[in-house]
Request: fold
Amino acid sequence: MAPSQASHVPSLDNLIKSFNSQSLEASIESLIFLLKRRQVKGDECAKATAHILRQVVAKSKWRDVDELLSRVQSVGSRLVRSAPLEPVIGNVVRRVLGLIRDEANEDRNADDIGSEAASDIQSLTPSTTPQPPRPRPTPIRPSPSVLSSGLTVSKSMFNLLSVKAPSESPVTGASTPLSQAQPASVHALRSEVMDGIEEILDEINQADDQIAGFSDIQIHPGDYVLAYQPSRTVERFLVKAASKRRFTVIIASLESPSPGSSELSYAALRKKLNAAGVNTINLASNGLMAYIPRVNKVIFSAKAVYQNGGLLVDSGSCVAAQAAREYLKPVIVLCPVYKFCPEDPSDEVSRGELGSPGSYVSYANGSAVDALDVENTVTDYIPPDLVDVYLTNL
Amino acid sequence: MAAETNEAPEGAPATQDGAKTGSTPANATANAATTEKLTSAQLKAKAKAEKAARRAQVKEARATVGTGPPAQDKGAASDGKGAKGKGKQDGQQTQSKGGPPQAHRPSISGRRPSMPIVEKDVRSGIPDSFSHLPMAKRIPTSQAQKDVHSAVLAVGQQMATFALNDSISRLKATLLAFRKVIESYETPEGNSLSRHFVPHVLNPQIEYLTECRPMCFAMGNAIRLLKGKVNKFDIDTAEDEAKEGLLEWIDLLINERITMAEYAIARNAAQSINEGDTILTYGRHRLVEKTLLEAKHDGKIFDVTVIDDPFERGGQELAKTLRHAGIPVLYSPNLGGLRPKVAAASNVLLGGEAIFANGSLHAPSGTADVAMAAMNAGVKVIVLCETINFDRDRVSVDSLTYNEIDPERNTADCFRLLFDNTHDKYITGVITEFESGGGNSPAQAILALLRKQEDPLID
Reply:
């Protein structure tokens, strides 16, 4: 499907590098491939989506806003479908759609001031969506009063969150399609949208550092911090805290204890922390109740935060959160704002995604392969009542 | 796994010289019984011949010992308490209390100097916050004290290497080894069994076992009962008679508290399984396995979800066994997705290593997480546990009070505790071999249950 990609080691970086050398469609296909094979996952998804949508805006042929929106939407829904348990993709697509509408709206407002409010565009969205499978393309957009593209990141984030539910928005229905957007303004729009996506990318890249800025507020000297499967976000958070505080990090994970690998897990992080004078203990255990009495707080990062406050996390984090609740230890979840989803968790989410059982029951073990139905769940859903603090980059 | 392969050669030499049962404790008792009878018969014959001559001497000597016994008796009594209260870790304490200066003391102190060095090496990697917890360690047979009986040596090695892992198989092996010790015991001149046996013969064995691996609670209980039994013998009791009594008592203990208990619990628990249930269990526990097979044998149709600890993988064996018995099994190699799996279950069956006086369960690490998830999901949590595992003196409120460090994962790079502590509020019921009416009692009632059920073994 993506022959040009075959020679490369499949990774996001290679993909981004190859953007210029291959056609848009090939790039999209490669990314879908990577997503399906889980070679791009977690935090990388957001970045990948933003990058590919940037290519869509830049390379595809479009004459007006409608066309651009529908292109972005169709690419977005393909991406979402290829990785149904990475809600972050949908979030980024929504952000980009909102961005385009804003820019278009701004243009139009500049053209004919006093026409109907921007919410017109909203009603357009569903009708122009050719594929409905994406879980309701809820239009998320900044309130009409904020229209400048030169917003600071955090401000635009704030508005993103403060947007009212579409049903509450006052002027739905009466739609005046945006088709009157002048072809002349297409170029301007393109570059503005590209700038906007660039900003989103910046925001995604900076989120970890921004969250890490709060670390010394949350971590106190002498703490025992249980970091469950520390992601890059958590790593940065801990390393930042280590520069100011002396504490102990207990690292737990659900990783398969295959010989050699478990000893080396998180070696880089531990090295960094040890260098800063922070002790680390690597737990080789699934159950965490035994250690929680020793722990002061539990920290992990979320893959996504749902509308109800529930979390999609790497599996096992739920065990940590549950154990912490038993001993009333605070559970701190690090989640950049781009992981906030305007959806409710589906049943599928709460059942969890199944991963490869190969690391637990090897194919060489014939009797086991014959006898067992192995279910290796790799994601968990954590209900909101188990979480004490959501730490975002705002 | 590596441990098991190592265990065999070490067990072997021990088997040769002393008892044939050196290896039996590890396996089953079925063949142990036959081999035992042979050896015990042989030994008894030999002992009898020697003893007939000696008994006269002992009787003579008793007059002179007359002043000694009270002091030694006290030592033995406090020793019993020491084992009861501290059975878990303090070999040294038992030793200092129990053993009045005797011939074997020099050998201990002779060995001691080398021990701290070894110990330091092994324990130095343990993170500070967990440094109070004991850890099994392998003592080369050459380093063991000379008083340690060969059967006990073998058992000790098997415990240190975790070839004997769960509390009941350790208990059984220990009792069978002690049986050998008793059989080969000969009261020295001028002493009586009830005064001499515990401090001079039994205690070194116990110390050695404790050094190999901290005693489990069942062992603590059994040793307390055994010492009580020995102390009850009148000082005039003939040695043969006393030994016979002890051997019978050990057989009775094994029969009643282990073999029959297992059967009764499996039967009771199997009755609690209903047609069409989904039973969830964690890791592999002998009683749970028996129960599920028993229920299957009764013709019940049910599903089993086995959640495993990836660092033990006992659950995989359980899953295979069940699958071969024709039970549909869903195997989850780790605690991932615990909530939905638990919520889909109708019953959670857990095996326990011990239950404390406050009703909390001491069980393999991860059990508490499963129990808690089940309780939160409104699923019944049933614990299977023999009463010999109940500790009526000690309480534990968190997992760091009584625990063990995995000897293979004992550094900051890779650290693991073997057990955890499940609060009794996460346990719906405990099925034991006692209590006639179904045997399903809440964890809080365990003390009452024990008190009510006069221990038939004490008198």
In short: The mean pLDDT of chain B is 76. Residues 2-260 of chain B form one domain.
